Amino acid sequence: MATLKDVAVLAGVSVKTVSNVVNGYEFVKPENRRRVEDALNATGYRPNLGARNLRRGRTGFIALVVPELSIPYFGELAGGIIAAAAEHDWSVLIEQTQGDRARERKVITDLGPHMVDGAIVSPQAVVPDDIATPGVPVVLLGEHPLPLPLDHVGIDNVTAARTAVHHLIDLGRTRIAVIGQHPTRGTATQRLAGYRQAIAEAGLTEIVAPALRYHHSDGALAMTELLDRPERPDAVFCFNDMLALGAVRVAHDRGLRVPDDIAIAGFDNTEHSAYSVPSLTTIAPDKAALARAAVDLVHRRAIDKEDFPPQDVSIPFALEVRESTTP
Fold first, then answer.
1. Cystine design at 298: which of 77, 118, 146, 246 (Cβ 3.0–4.6 Å)?
2. Do both 91 and 163 map to the same domain?
3. What is the pLDDT of residue 145?
4. Same domain, 68 and 87
5. Among 45-54, 187-196, 279-288, where is mean pLDDT lowest?
């Protein structure tokens, strides 16, 4: 394996000059830089990134902890965080917890400065005592209610859900159901609150269907139960796009036209929501902005060593109106 000295001998420069080129320092004569780069290519030299990061006082990694990568929202979010982290020369280590409290607690507890520089965590089941003193800077995502002095990035789920339901009300729908009630998910609690606000403001009756998980099959199961009731809904708001697409499938199988007979809206604006038939009306969080904000907060605390009060960053959202609610 080639060393810095081997590269320096071939290039006819000092080891220090080679080190400066490898580490990206600007103040190297153009001719020397060219000779070093040619020698690097010729020898196949690869820097020891671990040693370099240790000298800089960083690991070169951050952690991303999410419930399920099989849910498209978290897969797309992970892609955004990886892109944002790369701008800071970070690689991302990803852990999924399945929303299990013991697993979430263990993953977060095991985080330390010997492994990562910081962590971005989307919690579902942990309680404050589980992550009261993390070993590295932690940024929380989503709306799991954790009263902790940690940075948080998310959208206003109450207002977003209220916006979606008001859209259905404005279309003249009067029997508006919701799919996604869950006993522990913080996002479910807030989206249900937004649904209830809109329903109360319109003087309508709540129609609530639970979902223990947020997959297509859970949406299909909840929709089946709703359609089996004596009076079926004429609109359904689902807490994510997977639930909504499961509901669309059941409506189709029952011979119902979407949106003519029943309008359906989702949440997350995952890529496949724009390409389903019908395309899905959905709440669209700015996932790229969320990823950048979370990574930037980790960088400010872990690398820039800034000391500032915990931040609560609200990311914008939009209602994407598509075929599933408007013919």
1. 118
2. no
3. 58
4. yes
5. 45-54
